[in-house]
Recover the amino acids of this structure.
């Protein structure tokens, strides 16, 4: 049986990442671990760790990205939750067996060999959920 | 300086907690730690721990509750994130000094002497955030 090991991150979509850091970093006092643009994903991201779980801020940098469209439709706020699993292929197989609708039926290989897949929010009762497995 | 110690829980609002458990417990394989009605808050709640952070499911049990109105307006999905702080009064003072809009300007005393307060989502860039301090 595949196992969910931990929550890796909770992602928030924002219109202005610098403005949002005035809250998350300067007012709450969290440490900013990373702030960078990700041109491939047409976004800028920031990571602020809280005892092993990352708060991720995501700002679209182009109006034609998926995250920009989400922001336009839903407004800023919590966007997705990412859970680390020990065996993503086995977890996706288990989910398919239970008729859980997936965005990615097979793991996608990301940076550094990290495998990930998204579950459809309809299947997760409105929650956009990412699963990932470290190499 | 007050410190954020950890993420305590991430709460998801659902229309049907039993239906949602078919996903969170039966398909993902998370353990159900607690399932109960909370008449005072006109809701039913479930807690499913993931390595020290709780996934909380909240279902309104009355159409006139705040959570029912949220569900009607926004649909099911991620609702709020709760951070544990070492000193909630000091954190609220720090936030007020930074002009962060609060729902509770002073800590509310909850069950078992637990103190909590909510930050206004406008101040947290669309995120509803709860802060709490253990007695």
């Amino acid at each position: 049986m595949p196992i969910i090991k931990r929550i890796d991150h909770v992602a928030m979509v924002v219109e202005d990442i610098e403005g949002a850091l005035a809250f998350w970093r300067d007012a709450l006092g969290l440490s900013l671990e990373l702030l960078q643009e990700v041109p491939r994903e047409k976004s800028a991201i920031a990571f602020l760790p809280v005892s092993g779980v990352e708060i991720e801020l995501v700002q679209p940098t182009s109006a034609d990205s998926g995250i920009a469209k989400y922001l336009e439709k839903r407004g800023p706020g919590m966007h997705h939750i990412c859970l680390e699993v020990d065996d993503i292929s086995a977890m996706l197989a288990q989910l398919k067996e239970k008729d859980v609708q997936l965005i990615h039926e097979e793991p996608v290989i990301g940076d550094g060999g990290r495998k990930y897949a998204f579950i459809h929010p309809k299947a997760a009762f409105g929650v956009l959920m990412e699963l990932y497995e470290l190499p």
Q: What stands out?
A: The domain at 4-133 of chain A is CATH 3.10.180.10 (2,3-Dihydroxybiphenyl 1,2-Dioxygenase; domain 1). Chain A touches chain B at residues 1-7, 10, 12-15, 19-20, 22-23, 26-30, 50-51, 53, 75-78, 81, 83, 91, 94-95, 98, 100, 121, 123-128 (CB under 8 Å). The helical segments of chain A are 17-27, 66-74, 88-97. The longest helix of chain A spans residues 17-27.
